[in-house]
Each structure stands twice: as C-alpha cells, then as structure tokens.
Amino acid sequence: MKRKNLITLLWISLVTSMFFFIFFTDEKNVENFLLTVLISFMYSFILGAGNGLINDFLNKKFPWSEATTKRAAISIVSILIANIILVYFCNYVNFVLIQKAVNTAEYFSGRYNFINWFTINVALLISAFLHARGFMEELKKTSKKEVVEQKLIAKSANAQFESLKNQLDPHFLFNSLNVLSSLIDENPRQAQKFTASMSKIYRYVLEQKDKELVTVEDEIEFAKTYCDLLKTRFEDSVDFVFDVNKEDYRRYVVPLSLQLLLENCIKHNFATSSKPLIIKVFSENDTLCIENNLQVREQMKESAGIGLSNIVQRYSLLTKKNVFIEKSEDYFKVKLPILLAKPNETSIKVEDNDKAYERAKKRVKEIKSFYGNLISYCIIIPFLIIVNLITNPKHIWFYFPMLGWGIGIVAHGMSVFAIGKNWEEKKIREILEKQDKR
C-alpha cells in the first residue's frame, strides 16, 4: 500500500476514535481513549488495507480502461465477500478478544447480527468510495493518454501532408526541365514557347501546392493550360478530351492531381501520329476520371512512383473516400473523389480527432458527475445513519433518503453506462455511415 494511503488511514482512525470517544464513551479516561484508538485503528487498517489490496490486485488483473464492465462486476462481488469476512473478523476481535463482552458461541449465535449488518453497510459504502476514486484516477490517466495520442496523430497527419505537398514543387520542375531539354534539341522555337508557358504554369504550382483542396474548375483550367504545353511538344501524337459536368466545377479535388496524372499518361505510354495517345478527363458518379488508351512503352529504368502514390496518400489524409484505379487491355483509368469540403480547412482526420476528443471529454464529464454523486452518497448516508441512531434509535428514518437517493444513483448509472444516450449516438453513427456509403 502506498504511503499516501497509509497516512489517510491514520487520519481516518484518529478522527473516528475521537468521534466515538466523545459521543459513545461513558467514562472518559486515558485507558478508554487508548482502547477506542486501538479499536478504530484495527477497523480502519484491516478494512482499508483489505479493500486497498483488493483494488490494487484488480487494477493489475482487470484494468478499468480495458475491461470496464467486467471489472465493475468483479469489484462488486469481491468487495461484498471481502467486507463480510473482514467485518465479522473485526467485530469478533473487538467484542470477543478485546472488550470480552461475549464469548465465541454467543457472538455467532446471532446476537450481533444487527451490528455486523450495520458495519458491513458502512464498510461497503467506504469500499464503493475507494473503488470509485480508483476508477476516476484510472479514467484521468487514460483520458490524458488519449488526448496526447490524438494530438500526436494530428501532428503526424499534418507533417505527412506537408511532406507530400513539398514533393510537388521539385517533381514538377524536374519533369518540366526534362521536357524542355528534349525540345531544345528537337525544336528550339517550340522550346522558347514552352519556356514562356512553363513560367505561367509554374506560378500556379507555387500558388496551389500549399492548399489542401482546390476547386475542380481551377484544376481543369490549369490542366487545359498544361495540355497546351504538352501539345507544344507532342503535336498530333497526343489528343485531350475534357467532358466535366458544370455542376462539379464548384466542388473540390486535391491540387495538381490532374497534372500528375496527365504526366503519368505521357510518361508510361508511347504516342505517335499514327497511333495517338488519347487522354480523357470527365465526371462519373462523384469522381473525376482520367482515362487513356493503353499503349505501354518499355521502361528503361524503374519509375519512382511519386505521382500516383502522392495523390493516393494526400486523399487518404483528407477523406475516407478512396482513389480508384482501373486497368484493362485497352485502357487505364484513375478515379479521383470529388469532395464537398471547402479549401483551406483543417484536414478531415484532424477534425475527426477533435470531435472524438470533444465526445470523450463530454463522456468523462458525465462519468465524473455520476461518481461525484456516488461519492456524496457514500459520505452523507453513513452520516445520516449515525445521526439517526444517536438521536432517535427507536425510530429508523434513514432508510428513506438511503433508498430514494440510491434509486436515483442507479438511474444515473444506467443513463451513463447502459441505456442513456448511447443508443441515440449509435443510431446517429449508423445513419451517417449509411449516407457516407451512398
């Protein structure tokens, strides 16, 4: 047992002994005071240490954070059995061995059943308080751990997203310079025209690469400009067809995704005047599709795979919707999800983490409210029992607040752990999941 708990038990023993010595001891002398202190220490340390050891053992075997329902059931059974045994033992030592008020046969004959029953109830209330406090400490640790984990996930997602976006700038520049290098040898005049167009396109790259999302309209306009640049080099060998629904123009896609996919089409397929490469950009079921006829060229060296993997990873950090890839003998198609989210918002995963944290925070507040109610019950009801037995033992009235408040605590516990709003939240999640799948 921890030193802090031992000090707490010491103070409880002193306060209890003073209370019983002042209100229940007829002859107030040093001998009776020491006897009262001894008995109080025995009850406090045997009951307190016994329940503390049970709580520590259950914390190791059945942590609250991993098996809450199972732990609660085991705690109820274990403290009930343990406190009955400990109370009978303490009362036996007190009345038979220390005070010698009765012998063993008289003690177990039923004469002290009421005292045993009363002490067991007080012990159970104290045990419930200790276990509730243990649960709150464990919940606090778990909540802090979850908050730290959520913050790390959010920071990791943002760092990964920034890393992916930073690939775009050098990647585009490197590939554009390769095209320019080829044009200088093939057609110097076209190379000059290409350089002028590339400066305009590169300005767009610099402006958009730091954004999470851009409108489909902006991306299409940029793609058309980039296609003009490619036509400068390939002329009739490449043909581009755009057929995007106007209603999709105000929705959003990942920036520079079309440029990377158009670049992939050129990179992995050969194109000639007799067998032109036809690249189509069109809308299809809330996706933006980029499709080309398959004319695979032999790769001299293995591709770095930056383009497509970059798009897939950026979408995975922004939405649960997937990037789909279709490939047949005749064509290759990539489907980009068209999103409804506004640009420059915090990424969806980070928002989900924040919402999850807020829900967890609200849940913790509800649980803390319940255990605050339970702890108040465990403190006030024993006090009312003592007041009732001291002032008017013939008229037992403490049952009414004990039962009324007890029913209220049971209802509160059911609302927090069992019935409550859980079914509502579950239904809401089911409805949202169905809508996401449509």
From TrEMBL:
<protein>
    <submittedName>
        <fullName>Histidine kinase</fullName>
    </submittedName>
</protein>
<feature type="transmembrane region" description="Helical">
    <location>
        <begin position="7"/>
        <end position="26"/>
    </location>
</feature>
<dbReference type="InterPro" id="IPR050640">
    <property type="entry name" value="Bact_2-comp_sensor_kinase"/>
</dbReference>
<feature type="transmembrane region" description="Helical">
    <location>
        <begin position="396"/>
        <end position="419"/>
    </location>
</feature>
<feature type="transmembrane region" description="Helical">
    <location>
        <begin position="114"/>
        <end position="135"/>
    </location>
</feature>
<feature type="domain" description="Signal transduction histidine kinase internal region">
    <location>
        <begin position="159"/>
        <end position="237"/>
    </location>
</feature>
<keyword id="KW-1133">Transmembrane helix</keyword>
<keyword id="KW-0472">Membrane</keyword>
<keyword id="KW-0418">Kinase</keyword>
<dbReference type="Pfam" id="PF06580">
    <property type="entry name" value="His_kinase"/>
</dbReference>
<dbReference type="GO" id="GO:0016020">
    <property type="term" value="C:membrane"/>
</dbReference>
<dbReference type="InterPro" id="IPR025698">
    <property type="entry name" value="2TM_dom"/>
</dbReference>
<dbReference type="InterPro" id="IPR010559">
    <property type="entry name" value="Sig_transdc_His_kin_internal"/>
</dbReference>
<feature type="transmembrane region" description="Helical">
    <location>
        <begin position="74"/>
        <end position="94"/>
    </location>
</feature>
<dbReference type="InterPro" id="IPR036259">
    <property type="entry name" value="MFS_trans_sf"/>
</dbReference>
<feature type="domain" description="2TM">
    <location>
        <begin position="358"/>
        <end position="432"/>
    </location>
</feature>
<feature type="transmembrane region" description="Helical">
    <location>
        <begin position="32"/>
        <end position="54"/>
    </location>
</feature>
<dbReference type="Pfam" id="PF13239">
    <property type="entry name" value="2TM"/>
</dbReference>
<keyword id="KW-0812">Transmembrane</keyword>
<keyword id="KW-0808">Transferase</keyword>
<dbReference type="GO" id="GO:0000155">
    <property type="term" value="F:phosphorelay sensor kinase activity"/>
</dbReference>
<feature type="transmembrane region" description="Helical">
    <location>
        <begin position="370"/>
        <end position="390"/>
    </location>
</feature>
